[in-house]
Specification:
The chain is mostly helical. It is built from 5 helices and no strands. The protein starts with a helix and ends in a 5-residue tail after the last helix.
């Protein structure tokens, strides 16, 4: 098993426990390692568009991220 496969397996295990911002960061990291959104979506049993939205949300400003973590912004 490669390091990327291990990272995907770990993300799959943690997926339901992670907040959306952390999911987006994980998706971005894996994509930077060469995993396509389509490949990752198939392994996580979700759509590539969801992963794209999560990735975009993780790039929000620090102020917006803090509000989202407190549940004041979605």
């Amino acid at each position: 098993m490669t390091a990327i496969e291990a990272a995907i397996d770990e993300l799959l295990w943690l997926w339901r426990y992670l907040p959306d911002i952390e999911r987006g960061r994980a998706v971005r990291t894996l994509q930077e390692e060469g995993v396509t959104l389509r490949e990752l979506a198939a392994k996580l049993n979700c759509s590539p568009s969801l992963l794209s939205h999560l990735k975009r949300a993780a790039q929000a400003s620090p102020e917006d991220l803090a509000l989202a973590r407190r549940g004041e912004l979605s």
